[in-house]
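Review form for a predicted model. The reviewer records the input and the model, then writes brief findings.
Reviewer: anonymous (R2)
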Amino acid sequence: MTERIEFISKKPGVTEFGVPTEEEKTTEYSCWAELLNTPMREFRDPSTKVGIRKESPNFAIKFEIGIPIDSMWHVIWRGKEYGIDSIDPDYDKRNVTKIACKAVE
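Model under review:
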């Protein structure tokens, strides 16, 4: 495992007077991961006809990390934020969990 990733959650903040504020990012867990692949997908904005690329990295992490991973969390990898598409634990061998992500706009 050669890449360091962080799992973060986003929750709305509240001031001491009960006024809602912007979302606060909280680091839930950090671990080492293996980058399985990073497909690049190209999209075209129909209004401007400009193409953009989006990364969709897939990671493998240790099977039992001590806490359950929530699919609503996001992954921070190399300074970029990615949403979790799927979590696939390997119940047969019980050695790794695969996490598929996609770039957050």
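Findings: The chain is about 0% helix and 65% strand.
Further findings: The mean pLDDT is 87.
Recommendation: see findings above.
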